Each structure stands twice: as C-alpha cells, then as structure tokens.
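Subject: sequence -> structure tokens, single chain

Hey, anyone have a minute? Need the predicted structure for the following. Not urgent.
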Amino acid sequence: MKSLIESMNFSTFGAALLLSAIGLWFSIVIHGINRWSRRFFKSYFIIFLLCCLSSIAELLLQYYAAPRAVFIFLLLLESFLFSLPLLMLTAYLLHCCGENMRRSKLFHAVIVLWTVFIALLVSSLFIDGFIYITPENQYFRGPLYPLPLMPIIAALALDFAGTMRRRTRLSHKVFLAFLIAILPITATLIVQMFADIFLLIDVSYVLSALAMYSFILTDQIETDRRQQQKIIKQQQEIAHERANVMVLQMRPHFIYNTLMSIYSLCRLDPQKAQQLTLDFTNYLRKNFNAVASDSTIPFATELEHTRAYLAVEQAQYEDMLIVDYDTTFTNFRLPPLTLQPIVENAVKHSMNPNYEPLHIFIRTRRTDSESEITVENTGPGFELSDDSKPYITLKNIQQRLEIMCGGSISIMPREGGGTVVKLTIPRYSFRGHNTDLPHPEQGSTGVTSHSRAKHSRGWNQNDDTRFYEEGMYP
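Reply:
Had a minute. Here:
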C-alpha cells in the first residue's frame, strides 16, 4: 500500500513537471504573442517547474534519510514559490488593462496580503501550531495550518474581483484566461484548508497556466490577424485612392485633342464623328466606373475600357497606331485600371512621328496555375527611373495587383526596340479567392483581331440605344 501511494505521489508531481516543461517550451518556441506576454509566461512556467522539482525533492527526502534542516528549507521554498504566481497574475492583469502597477490599489493590496503570508510562513518555523515535523521527515498539519492560506485566498479573491471589474477592458478570451487561472487555484486552496490535497495543487496550478496560455495565445493570434486585415484594407484604400487620382488626372491635351477631332469630323465625316463621340463617352464612363469599384472586375470589362481608349487614340493618330489583339482567354478577374493605363503608357511614351507606326500587341494566356496578360509595343520604349511617370504608373498597378489578387508585373525591353509588360495573376490569390470567373461564357468579348484607325467600326443604332439605356444620354 505504501509503495502504491509513493508511486501515485511521484507520478502526480512528474506529470506536473512534464506539463510545466511543455508550457515553458511553447512559450519559448511559439512567437504568436507579444514580448511582454512571452516573458510573463516563461517566468510563470519556470516558477512552476521549480515548484515541481522542489516537491519531488521533498518526497525523496521523506522516504530517504536526509537532514532535517534541508527538509524544512524545501518546505519553505516550495511554499514561497507557490505564492509568486499570485503577484505575477496581478501584474499581468494590470498590464493587459494598461494600468500603472505602482499606482494601482489592487496591486498594493495584493502586496500587503503576500507580505502577511511570508510573515506567517516564517513564523511557522518557531510555532508548532502550523505544522509538526517528525524525526523521520514526516510533517503533520497543526491547528494553525489554514492561517497562512487565508491571505493567499484573499489575494486571489481580490484578483477575481479586479478581473470582473475590468472585464470591459479585456477581450473575451483574455477575460476567460484570467478566470481559468484564478478560480481553480482558489478552489483547490480552500479545500486544502480542510483536507490534505497538496498533490493536486501542483497539477491545478500548471493546468490553469497552460489553459491561460492557450487562451492568451489564440487571442493574440486573432488580434494580429485582425490588424493584418486592417493593414491590407488600408493598403487597398490607398491603392484605390491612387487609382482615383490617376483617373482624375487625365491628360488635358488628350481631352482637348479628342474634342477637336470630333469637331473637325462633324463636318468631314459625321458618321465617324458620332462613332468617336461614342468611343470617347464609353472611355469616360469606364474611367469613372473604375473609381467607384473597390474590388476586382472581369477582364472583359477592362478590355472593353482599353478598346474604347485605343479607338479614341486611333481616330487621332490614324495609321500611326496599330493594335493587335489575341485575347481569346478572358475568363479571369483583375483590379480595375490595370490594362488600360499600361496601354496608355505605351501610346504616350512610345509614339514618335519620327519612327515607324507604333504597333501594340495585347495577348492573354492561361496556364495551370495563373492567367497572363502581355502588352508589347514597338517604338523607342521608355526608361524606368524612380521618379519617371511610367514607373509611378506601373508601380501603382503592381501594388494593386499584389494587394487585391496576389498578382505580379514584370517589365523588360523588347528585342528590336520597345517594351514588354507582363502581368501574372494566380488563379487562386494568396487569400484563397478564385480569380477565375465562375462561367467561361461571362464577359467573353476577347477575340483575336487586328485593328487600325482606317478599319474603325461605324456607328449603328444598337450602340446609340445601349448608351441611352445606360443613362449616358438625357
């Protein structure tokens, strides 16, 4: 029977020791919580580790001959170590609530109660009424044994009241973590006043600490995730505002030249003037729709915007601007104002009357994991320096691609002169969103075609009706 009790005692303290070591390892290895909390839990579990080691040493001294003074020292050390988490819990509670410990009445009251406990602990060395130790290193509870436990229980009650009072300043999980840390230990100590369950105190301390750590860790991870989402949202808003500025800063001479072209064509070619008016109106409508959009759009919509812009430019440059489309694959999404500004960059910075006609190639391709858009142009190309307008435009597009769909952009010189801009959009973005459209037939306006100014399509009644129904005409 005695050997069975010994085995149970060592097994219980060994389990508590193992759990303390696991908690210490987690607090060192896992970096999901802030520095202050990590230091708190490392110190917390180190104290429990020392408590368990002192308890095991105490058991060994009970069953094997050892000096009486050493046994008494271990008893005092064990009691002292068990009282330290009380102060640490109070300090951590005040830290989580953003309070100054030096000015806190709660912390001062707990310090006073802890001092009373230490005084009673020291008094037990000289008064036999607390505990009685036999020559065989067996100790028995005296009539005054519950007295040192009272200030500890009172301090825990103050911590409980302080936690309840500050619950509105704590997150739900942190609030539960403090309750789990306080209530089981308090209940165990109250029972210990009337019955000897000292073996369970170690286990209840460590289990409460592990539960508290898990709650704090998950709460910190959720808080960090919310902050990360907030940062991403702010980045999206910044990128969207930059896109809005880019729309509102349309080149004045582009608008002026377009209106003058319409004015001239009204007399020379009324039908073409009507077509140019529709194309220019469509371009403006797409620009302002892009300002209102805060999410990705179908590529077909962006392609239509780009076609409207190029139709206006082709009306002015005529045979100097040639565009080839190879966009049979359009079943994916991308941020608004992605393709059109790239094409506008190509026209604005590569068009040169001293060179041959500017040739722009727009292609789309689909791989197993991503969608690709390639914009290639002839001409002199442009240099990308940090303060150049092409660089700023492409940098803004790159930021919005990364934030909104996890895409990327690469820029390289074209063999024979010109520039190649390649956009890559993963079919599944880094947030797990599918960038493919749900149905291939949606927005399938992409075609393989060759477009010159002299091949511009004519105005028809359907176009006029479409713009009237969409509210472009009064």
